[in-house]
Every structure is written in C-alpha cells, then in structure tokens.
Design brief:
OB fold (Dihydrolipoamide Acetyltransferase, E2P); about 35% strand; 3-stranded antiparallel β-sheet; about 20% helix; 6-stranded antiparallel β-sheet
Length: about 130
C-alpha cells in the first residue's frame, strides 16, 4: 500500500478530500479502498449542480467483487465530475490519489474538521 498523502483529509468511509481555492473540495477514494474493492469496473458519479449534505451518499463504485457507496465529505454543490473515470475506472486502481471523482463547492470547510488526517486514517485501517 502506498504512503498516505499528508495534504489530504480522510473519511471513515475511505474517501479522500483535497481542499482547493474558493472552497472547492476534490474527492476520490483511498488506496486502501481500491485495494479492498479490487478491479473497478464502473463508477456512478454524482450529478452536476446536485446539492449534497456532509455524509450524504452521492456516488457508487463497482468492482468485480462488490459495489460500495461514496459519501460527500462536505455540504455543498457538485461543481465538477471526472468523466474520464466513466471510460477508464481502472485509473482509480492505478493512481488512487491522482484520480479524483468529483468536486464540491463547500458551503463551509468546517465539515472537514470531522475527517481524519493521514496519521489517524492509517491507525484506523491498521486496526
């Protein structure tokens, strides 16, 4: 398993979040999640302009073994989706921290305070 990037925040549900300019939060799934799922074959992304609440189910990743729901890390509106992963979901397996799934313009970045840093996430997945 790769080293966890220190600049990301991590959810108990195995999404990573990266804060960018203008309260934009870029979201993907962790290396641990893609390892557990196996080869991804399909990703259902959230709809553009969809209003989401922090912790709300908003996307699905499917692998040869199972399907898993993804949850929004923050309250806000979907402002961008990565259409490339529709055609090539395996990119998430190959580069989980370089392959984002969607971006949300957060109402408040305070929601990210509920997420873990790399150290806490690493401890959680080792339990």
């Amino acid at each position: 398993m790769s080293e966890l990037p220190e600049n990301l925040k991590y959810a108990k549900t195995h999404e990573w979040s990266k804060v960018e300019a203008d309260n934009i939060v870029r979201v993907g799934i962790t290396d641990f999640a893609q390892e557990e799922l196996g080869d991804l074959v399909y990703i259902e992304l959230p709809k553009m302009d969809k209003q989401l609440k922090a912790g709300e189910q908003c996307a699905v990743v499917e692998s040869v073994k199972t399907a898993s729901d993804l949850y929004s890390p923050v309250t806000g509106v979907v402002v961008e989706v990565n259409e490339d992963v529709n055609d090539s979901p395996e990119k998430v397996n190959d580069e989980p921290y370089d392959t984002w799934l969607f971006c949300i313009k957060a109402d408040s970045l305070a929601d990210l305070d509920d997420l873990m840093d790399a150290t806490a996430y690493q401890e959680m997945i080792e339990e």
